[in-house]
Amino acid sequence: MAADDTIYSECTAAEPLLAPRPTLGSRLKRRWYRADRLGRAAIVLLALMMCAALAVRILVEVTGPRDRWPGPPATIPPGADDSPESDEERRLAVRAAMKHAWSGYRKYAFGKDELRPVSNGSNNKWGGWGVTLIDALDTLHIMELHAEFKEAVTHVTGVDFSKATDGYTTPFFEMVIRCLGGLLSAYEMSLDPRLLEKAQQVGDVLMPAFGTSTGIPYPRVDVNAGRAVPSDRVCIAEAGTVQLEYWKLSELTGDPSYHAAAQRVVDILDRAHKPYPGLYPIWVDIASGNLTSGQITFGGMGDSWYEYMLKQYIYSRRSTAQYRRMYEESIDAMTARMVQRSIYDENMYYVGDLDATATKFSPRFQHLTCFVPGMLALGSRVLDRPADLELAKQLTYTCFQMYNLTSTGLSPEYVQFRDSKDRGISPDEAEADFTTVALGAASSKEERDGFYLGPNRSYILRPETIESLMVLYRVTGDLKYKEWGWQIFRAIEAWTKTPAAYSAYRDVTSTAGRSQLTDSMESFFLAETLKYLYLLFSPADYYSLDEYVFNTEAHPFRIMRSPRP
Ligand code: DMJ
C-alpha cells in the first residue's frame, strides 16, 4: 500500500510530475522580511485586495447559481423530485454525464492523459499517450456518441506509442489494461483496422517487460529506450492481469507469441509454493518466480489476478481446465478464510485481508474488493456454484452500504470492521499485525452501521460497486440492484460534478461540497464507472455477458469464436 494510505490496484502508481510548490503564505512571508517600507505597504495592499477578492467569491458562491457545483443532498426520497424513473430515462441521464465529462476533457485536455476537472487544466501523469481518450473510446461507442468516437479515433491514429514523456517509465500493467485493452475493444466494435494497428504498437512497446530470466514481467518499461526497467519484484495483480489482453491480441493478429509470453507467467505462479492452496501473497520475486511476502488480498495489488482466472476461462469458451481449477481453489480458500460477518450487523459480510502466512486476519474491506461480488455472481453462473451467488448478494449489500451510510452517499476507499469473535482473534491483535488504521473510540452510530471509517475517506470515482451491481442485476434480475445503482449515480452527480466534468472527493463524510473536490478525474471513471452504469440501465442483451467478457478496466472483449485457436 502507498504510504499516504491511498490504495492503488497497481504496485507501481503513476509518477507525480511536479514537485510541491511553496505556498502563497510562505512566499509572502519571505518577501515581507526582505522588503523596505514601501514594499511592505505594497504587500499590505495586496493582502487587502486578496481578502476583497475572497469575499466577492464567497458571495458569488452563496448567492450564485447552485446547480453546477456539488452541494445538494444525495439522498432525496424517491418521488420527492423529478428524478427519472424509467430505465430509458436513467440510461440517458448516464449518457448525458458521459457527454459532460467528455466535452470537458475535449475542451481543456484533449490528447492529454487526464483533465483536471476543477481548475480546467490537464496532466500527462501516464507518460502522455492520452490515456483518458483511449480508455474512453469504447464507452463512446457503446453510448452511440459516434462523432466523439470518430474524432478520438482520428487522434489516436496520430499517437506515437514508442515515445513517452522524457524520463518517464511506463507502468506495464496499467497501460495494458487501459490502453491495449481500450484499443482492442474499440477495434472489435468498429472494425477500424487503424485501431488494431495501434493496439499492436502498444502491445509491442510493452513486450520488453517479459524479458526477464523467468519471464515474470518487470513492472515498468522505458519505452523511449525500448527496454524494461530492472526490478527485483512485481506484484501479482501487475504480473497476472495482462493475459486477457495479450491473448486477444494474439487472436486478432494471428501471432501466438503474445499469448505465449503472458501464459508463461501464470504457469509459473500456478506452480509456486503458496501458504494455503489458492491464496497468493502479493509480491513475486522476479528472478525465482517465488511468492515472497506481502498480504493476501482480493483488494489492491491482488484483486484482478483472481478475476482473470475466471475471465480467461470464460474467454476460452470454458476450454481451459487450468483456469477453472485455479479459480475454484482460490474462491474456496477465500470463502473459508477471508470472509467474515460484521459483529454489529448480521446482514453485512465482507472480505478482509490475510498476512503472507494466511493465518492473521485484518478486518478491513476495500472499495477495490467490491468487484468480488460481480466476479462471484458471474462465476456462479458459468461454473454452477450456487453458494457463490448467495455470498455475492451478501457482499453487494455491504458494498452498497459503504455508499448508503455516509452523509454524501459516496463510498470511502475502505471501511474497517471489528473482527468476528468466531475466529478467536481480537480486533486489537488483528490491528497490531499489519493494518495501519487505528479503530479509535466507537460511536454508537458506527456500531449500528457495522463498520468504521479509517482516515482515508476519499471517493476517487471508482467503479467496483457499480460493476458488481450491473452483474448482479443481470444474473439475478433483482430490481433493487438498479435502484442502488441509481442512488449512487445521483450521489456522484450531486457531489462530484464540476462545470467541466467530475472530480474525486476528499472526504465522503463531509458535506462541504466544492472545497472537497481534489481536481482529479481518473480515466477509469469514463472507461468503467459510467459504462457499467449505462449497462445497468440497458437491456441485458446489450453487450451480453454470454458474448463478451470485460477486462478489468471494463473493456468488453468478444468471447473466442472457437475454443483455443
Ligand atoms: C481500475 O483501473 C481497474 O479496475 C483495476 O483492475 C482496479 N481498479 C481500478 C479502478 O478502481
UniProtKB/TrEMBL annotation:
One annotated Gene Ontology cellular component of this protein: membrane
Residue intervals passing through the bilayer: 38-60
Pathway info: Protein modification; protein glycosylation
Active site residues according to the UniProt entry: 174 (proton donor), 303, 413 (proton donor), 464
Enzyme class: hydrolase
Protein transport found in the keyword field: no
GO biological process annotation, one example: carbohydrate metabolic process
Entry-linked InterPro entries: 6hp_glycosidase-like_sf, Glyco_hydro_47, Glycosyl_Hydrolase_47, Seven-hairpin_glycosidases
Pfam family, one: Glyco_hydro_47
GO molecular function: calcium ion binding; mannosyl-oligosaccharide 1,2-alpha-mannosidase activity
Keywords, alphabetical: Calcium, Disulfide bond, Glycosidase, Hydrolase, Membrane, Metal-binding, Transmembrane, Transmembrane helix
Enzyme Commission number, as recorded: 3.2.1.-
Paired cysteines (S-S): 370-399
Alphabetical list of SUPFAM superfamilies matching this protein: Seven-hairpin glycosidases
Binding-site list for Ca(2+): 552
PANTHER family registered for this protein in UniProt: ENDOPLASMIC RETICULUM MANNOSYL-OLIGOSACCHARIDE 1,2-ALPHA-MANNOSIDASE (PTHR11742:SF55), MANNOSYL-OLIGOSACCHARIDE ALPHA-1,2-MANNOSIDASE-RELATED (PTHR11742)
Similarity comment: Belongs to the glycosyl hydrolase 47 family.
Protein known as: alpha-1,2-Mannosidase
